[in-house]
Design brief:
alpha/beta, Non-ribosomal Peptide Synthetase Peptidyl Carrier Protein, Chain A, 15 helices, 43% helix, globular
Length: 337
Amino acid sequence: MKIRDIELGNFPLFLAPMEDITDPSFRHICKKYGADVMYTEFISSDGLIRDGKKSVLKLDIFDYERPIGIQLYGHITEAMVEATKIAENANPELIDINFGCPVRKIANRGAGAGMLLNIPLMLEMTRAIVRSTHLPVTVKTRLGWDDNSKNIVEVAEKLQDTGIEALTIHGRTRNQLYKGISDWTLIGEVKNNPRMKIPIIGNGDVTSPEIAKKMFDTYGVDGIMIGRGTVGKPWIFKHIKHFINSGELLAEPLLDEKVNVAIEHFNRSVEWKGDVVGVLEMRRHLSNYFKGLPNFKEIRMRLLTTKEPAVVIGILEEIREKYKGIEFEGGNEYFRY
């Protein structure tokens, strides 16, 4: 698969842009485990052109992350074009347009998935952004606004005509949010439409190597983007690649590796965001790294309430000692500690 001159090989895996999750600290971990392309957290065009501190901070990218895309969202074409020019200065490989975020405060003002209610504006905005930048432009969107407007096959053709160079499709409508099961049938229909020439990347409910391989094999997508399936499991990229190449499943990482990853991730978060925000935004990650451990509730609550970085590190080391040598079978997965 290629996006313009960016060669990504066969079966490339993409890290989805996720607010307060895919910051540089998490992207560093995902890259180590084999993510082929990563995106920043999505960035408000309004915040960027007004020099908002949080939006500007999201432009921080590093050479080891490449190739990397900056994802923008907004509902005004002129603001999106201006934000694209600002984002160019961060020197990413890609500009990605978010037409998929279902969050009410974004979609209800016409941005993100809200654009699915105004396809003419979606196309006008995309065309203007493509014309404004020398970088490849990609788009991420959904099947449609609701079950009565699953128009992605038609919309994909029109988006291609604007000049975008890849399209990611999440297999839900906006009204589904993240509920129910992701439907890849229409993603496959877009991919197998003979008129489509650009790469099609599928997204939604890829949480295991077996599911990833099934989606490649069944729907023929050029790449797969993984979002929530990476939280607490950044090694999923490595495990998928190994399974596709060998047909063998790798064992769940041992506890020592999980603790080491959690500590590295935590330290980078605090270094980049400071003690307060760095600790706060790591909480969802830390509890998920150790999901499935027996009798974990008390430690989990401490991880979710502790504010001091040194105390958090101490709790992580406590987990290493407390669960050393334990094997636990939980749910449908086998956890080895």
